[in-house]
Amino acid sequence: MKNRRPLFTVAALWFGFAFLYVPIFVLIAYSFNDSRLVSLWGGFSLRWYGELLRDRQIVDAALLSLRIAVISATVSTLLGTLAAIALTRMGRFRGRLLLGGMIAAPLVMPEIVTGLSLLLLFVSMQDLLGWPSKRGATTIMLSHITFCMAYVAVIVQSRLAIMDGALEEAAMDLGGRPFRVAVDITLPLIAPAMLSGWLLAFTLSLDDLVITSFVSGPGSSTLPMVIFSKVRLGVTPDVNALATIIVAVVGLGVLVAGWLMLRQDRLAAGETPIRAYA
Amino acid sequence: MPDPESRPPARPQPSRRPWEDREAAPFVRLEGLSKSFNGTVAVDHVDLHIYRGELFAILGGSGCGKTTLLRMLAGLEIPTSGRIFIDGTDMTNVPPYERPVNIMFQSYAVFPHMTVEQNVGYGLKKEGVAGAELKQRVTEMLELVRLGGLEKRKPDQLSGGQQQRVALARALIKRPKVLLLDEPLAALDRKLREHTQFELMNIQDRLGITFVVVTHDQEEAMTLATRIAVMDAGRFVQIGTPTHVYEFPCNRFVADFFGTINLFASRVTQVESGTCRVQSDEAGADIASGDAGGQAAGAEVWIAVRPEKISISREAPVVGGFNVLKGVVWDFGYQGNRSIYRVKIASGKIVQVSTQNRVRSDARAVEWDDEVFLSWDPNSSVVLAE
Question: How far apart are CA A122 and CA A132, in angstroms?
């Protein structure tokens, strides 16, 4: 009787894992399938990876997606960090609660709503200001910055919240002017959080389909958009290969971000000054 | 290499008790200093004079405003009203990075991403000191706090005591006019705390820097300080030397803050110069005490006696009938160096008495349920009006 519980737990764990990862492993396995038919195994081959690289449309879309992801991750990291600093270090100011709520809102806002509202904004801006003159890479980047910033702000904010505020005060007390203190103390200590925020923003941007579809224009199809349109015409094995590459890239990003956050938490735990026994 | 264990020759000092010298100019002067946070008053119109070379302690429970006061001295909080003068200069609106004052935080706030050397040298570097001079002064300071050889360590490789000394060295290296210490010993275990206490006093004596210590621990304050300011609800209740505040507390709050004290509700019956008589129903006796503290006959007061001032014996003491109470040992605690007795007297009140255990396994020692006599010298008690 005693063994039943662990057995059940283990089974549940494996079932859960299977539920999550079997589809992905099937996809990865079939990306190495030699056969043109998606569901028939025809032996191991890398031919679809080669095919992929010869497909101009896919390569262009991938390069555009990467460019958008790098720029929007960088800009949203800068803006998100500033927002986090304002929320945690500027004390109580008018509208602090509102700002905090509004920064977190894109995390829970349905993408359809975000996408639609951004589209409306860009259209009216075009009418009133003449900028952005057309929808394309620029509008996609602006949209990605909007929602990625929220994630970065939340990550950096949590780091700042556990960081001892006395560190910055001590630096100031020792003669550091506020800007020097930010460079000497605050930045080095929140750098891991900023990096993991950047990686998260990068993967989110690379992956986004719904918002991007709303705000993209002719000639600016990102990778997820290309895949989506290709799949609608029937699944081809080169899409499997592409998906495998994306899984690898995104998986690596999430892994690095997770590792950074774990390390930073450990660092923070080790930092606690109260370790009484010498 | 300086050795903090050997006592340095005392520096020539104009006076050991500058606060008694009417000519002496205060080094730190607070005038009507107040701070409130969103309508809550943390520090309430405080006036204070601290003299050069003092080791001044601000003592109080949590939330009494002592840390806010310290942070105002450091420039980390801007006073709502009042002025702060340090060495004759108005510092009220000077930002922390321009004040000749350094602070050691309760959490130590050692920079976790810098080595010991970088931590200690940070303040000098911001002053523009560099190269060989920086290195030499850092080495000197690390020797002073006995951290020589740990220059390249990161804070997470240090014990709590070592981190504390890094924080101390870092705050001392700029030779501040005043060093502020926020609960400097609270995070250390008991043994280390006692040791560090004396080390702090030696360093202070050697460098001659004025120290202001904030603490909630009355023993720490009494051991360290030249003078203690007892703080409650944003105001100073009493300021004086450790002996003064312990032996002559100005009210029940201060009396109670510095260890245990027995209080008997009484009424003054007779006042003479330097002595008085009170009648106490609670004590069930006529009590003779020293100075009435300005109270006239008929005033309702409390007679306060410290447990160690009371003698306990099984035989009636040979005194003139005053200050002798009869009771039964209700509770008894042996603490090694001393014993604590809780004695129930006729009125039902419990009186606490402590004795030094100077003789090993004393056959005459008082035990549970013994009938005992308590007595004390009239000059050992204090008359408290509130």
Answer: 7
Read off the pLDDT of residues B130-181 as tens digits, 9 standing for 90 and up. 999 999 999 999 998 889 899 999 998 999 899 999 999 999 999 999 999 9
CA dihedral of residues B157, B200, B106, B241 (deg, nearest 10): 170
Collapsing DSSP states into helix, strand and coil, what is residue A200?
helix
Instruction: Report residue A88 as tokens.
Output: 């945690």
| B195 touching A (Cβ < 8 Å) | no
CA-wise closest residue to B102 among B212, B261, B214, B191: B212
Helices A187-207, A223-232: inter-axial angle, 10-degree rounding: 20
Smallest CA-to-CA distance from A154 within A119, A94, A108, A122 is with: A108
Closest Cα of chain A to B159: distance in Å? Answer: 5
CA A219, CA B256: separation in Å to the nearest integer? 81
d(CA B289, CA B356): 24
Residues B237-282 pLDDT 10s: 999 999 999 999 999 999 989 888 999 999 999 888 888 889 888 8
Location of structure tokens 């006395």: A166
Query: Cβ distance B195 to B160 under 8 Å?
Result: no
Domains by residue range for chain A, with CATH? 45-267 (1.10.3720.10)
**A277·B189 Cβ contact <8 A:** yes
Angle at A251 between CA A246 and CA A252, to 5 degrees: 105
Residue B14, CB half-sphere, CA atoms under 13 Å: how many?
Answer: 12
DSSP state at residue A128: H
- Residue A3: pLDDT band with limits 50, 70, 90: low
Please give the C-alpha separations between residue B258 and each of A4, B191, B292, B344, in angstroms, as whole numbers. 61, 21, 21, 23
Question: How many Cβ pairs within 8 Å bridge chains A and B?
Answer: 95
Enclosing H/E stretch for B262? strand B262-272
Instruction: Please answer whether residues B339 and B307 qualify as being in contact, where contact means their C-beta atoms are separated by less than 8 angstroms.
Output: no
Is residue B12 over pLDDT 50?
no
ipTM of predicted complex: 0.83
Q: Which amino acid is at A94?
A: R
A51 touches chain B (CB under 8 A): no
Is residue A96 very low, low, confident or very high in pLDDT (cuts 50, 70, 90)? confident
| Tokens 């774990």, residue located | A262
Please, which residues 100-139 of chain B have a Cβ atom closer than 8 Å to chain A?
Answer: 101-103, 105-113, 122-123, 126-127
pLDDT by residue (tens digit) across B47-64? Answer: 999 999 899 999 999 989
What predicted TM-score, i.e. pTM, was given to this entire model? Answer: 0.80
User: Among A4-13, A132-141, A216-225, which is the least confidently predicted range?
Assistant: A4-13
Kindly report the average pLDDT of chain B as a whole number.
88
Percent above pLDDT 70 for chain B: 95
A274/B189 CB distance under 8 A: no
CB of A266 within 8 Å of a chain B CB? The answer is: no
Identify the DSSP state of A85. Answer: H
Cα-based angle B353, B355, B357 (whole degrees, multiple of 5): 155
Alpha helices in B147-211 (DSSP H): 160-172, 190-207
Q: Return d(Cα B346, Cα A169) in angstroms, integer.
A: 58
Give me the percent of chain A exceeding a pLDDT of 70. 93
Q: What is the distance between the alpha carbons of residues A1 and A12, in angstroms, rounded to a whole number?
A: 18
Distance CA B237, CA B231 (A): 6
pLDDT score, position B84: 96
Best CA proximity match to A217, nearest among A62, A76, A71, A64: A64
Chain B contact for A275, CB < 8 A?
yes
